[in-house]
Design goal:
Elements: H1 9-29, H2 34-44, H3 49-72, H4 76-96, H5 103-134, H6 146-160, H7 173-191, H8 205-209, H9 218-245, H10 252-265, H11 267-278, H12 280-300, H13 304-315, H14 318-332, H15 338-364, H16 373-388
Helix pairs in contact: 1-4, 1-5, 1-6, 1-7, 2-9, 3-5, 3-15, 4-5, 4-7, 5-15, 6-10, 9-10, 9-12, 9-13, 9-14, 9-15, 9-16, 10-13, 11-12, 11-14, 12-13, 12-14, 12-16
Keywords: Membrane, Transmembrane, Transmembrane helix
Protein name: YbfB/YjiJ family MFS transporter
Organism: Thauera sinica
């Protein structure tokens, strides 16, 4: 049997769907449900805005720790053991958040949620990417990230549709109702994803020992640090900024996050396509420019225009920067597989920590949330500059682990 032959259509879509559902559960719901819920929880008296920013920071600390753990547990056999557990722990923490009014316990649950999210966000796409690469289908890897966009849309609906019926911690009940079955099904499917064929050539020891960060990959890592800081402020605090800049009852106060979520639905297909046509490096430069203008929207055009521009432009770009960076880095180091994915996401998570932390410091000094977006704009300018210094890889296909990246004619 040809190890790179495409699997039957049913077998192709099942792993992609399992990874997408995993990202719905842990990222779209487990993590980003906090964004539309935060102003509601503040209005309920469940927490203050400064405490909300601090809790967001601890969730990102957990995400960073989870991604660091995934660097250590990057072998496929380890992933198959850890990934189902992390999925179920994430769903359990989402459920538990609906049954506590204790702010300290809530913080601990958000930390646990972040750790498990970091593990899943690294391991699920990495496991399925390796599976796709073995079948010569790695160019489809971006489609997994539809799960994040779909999860954002779902979490927005689950936060706002029952908003008048629930209060405080009970606002997490609809989230858990969706996350638990999705996590359980994904854990079953990903845990039994088929392994490489017996007798397949092992990855050379020399390729495993090559450094993750060298002259070729350093610009990618530096740019991704800027991307992590650049996107986190609008994706965490956009509803808060909408409430700062818009009159009471304005439709964008709840609608901004819905528009951002809707914008993400086309992002995976769009940037997958642009990366194929332009090359991943060039598409990534365009991505960061558009994303930076979006983050600057509420600063350049305060009010309806700026909030709407931010929701549209950040929503349609931030997932693209993730999938393009993952593919570009793996093309530069085709033998590193899940290890380079984990390292990038660890850096991304570390950069994200500074956003809510600096937002909290600024709020404690009487500043507005809108002003903190200047930090995001600067970070994306940084990301653009470093991406321009990244070597363009001929072709955009991702080689299977243990094989040299094939040359391909430029588009």
């Amino acid at each position: 049997m040809n190890p790179h032959a495409a699997p039957p259509p049913g077998r192709l879509w099942l792993p992609l769907l399992a990874a997408a559902f995993a990202l719905v559960a842990v990222h779209g719901i487990g993590r980003f449900a906090y964004t539309p819920l935060l102003p509601l929880l503040v209005a309920d008296g469940f927490m203050g805005l400064d405490a909300g920013a601090a809790i967001a920071t601890w969730n990102y600390v957990g995400y960073l720790l989870g991604a660091m753990l995934a660097i250590r547990l990057h072998e496929p056999a380890q992933i198959r053991r850890i990934l189902p557990v992390a999925l179920l722990v994430n769903a359990a923490s989402t459920l538990a958040q609906g049954f506590t009014d204790n702010l300290m316990l809530f913080l601990v649950l958000r930390l646990i949620n972040g750790v498990s999210n970091g593990v899943v966000f690294v391991q699920a796409p990495a496991l399925v990417l390796e599976w796709l690469a073995r079948h010569g289908l790695a160019s489809l890897s971006g489609l997994m990230y539809f799960g994040v966009g779909g999860g954002l849309l779902l979490s927005n609906a689950l936060a706002n549709l029952p908003a008048d019926l629930l209060h405080g911690a009970a606002r997490w009940w609809p989230m858990a109702l969706a996350a638990v079955p999705l996590a359980w099904w994904s854990a079953r499917q990903l845990g039994r994803l088929d392994r490489p064929q017996a007798g397949a050539p092992a990855q050379p020891a020399a390729s495993r020992a090559t450094p993750l960060i060298d002259r070729a990959s350093l610009p990618v890592f530096m740019a991704y640090a800027g991307a992590g800081l650049g996107y986190i402020l609008p994706t965490t605090f956009l509803p808060v900024v909408a409430r700062e800049q818009l009159p009471a009852g304005h439709w964008l106060q709840s609608g901004a996050w819905l528009i951002l979520a809707l914008s993400t639905l086309a992002a995976a297909w769009l940037w997958n396509r642009l990366g194929s046509r332009m090359g991943d490096r060039n598409a990534l430069v365009l991505n960061y420019v558009v994303q930076g203008i979006g983050v600057a929207g509420p600063l350049l055009w305060p009010g309806t225009v700026g909030v709407l521009a931010c929701a549209l432009m950040v929503g349609c770009t931030f997932l693209g920067s993730v999938l393009l960076t993952q593919r570009l880095a793996r093309a530069l180091h085709p033998h590193q597989g899940p290890r380079i994915s984990a390292a990038l996401i660890t850096l991304y998570g570390f950069a994200q920590l500074t956003g809510p932390w600096m937002a909290r410091l600024w709020l404690e000094r009487g500043g507005s949330m809108s002003d903190t977006y200047w930090l995001g704009v600067g970070a994306l300018v940084w990301a653009t500059g470093w991406t321009l210094r990244t070597r363009q890889v001929v072709g955009h296909a991702v080689a299977p682990a243990g094989a040299a990246l094939p040359a391909a004619p430029a588009d």
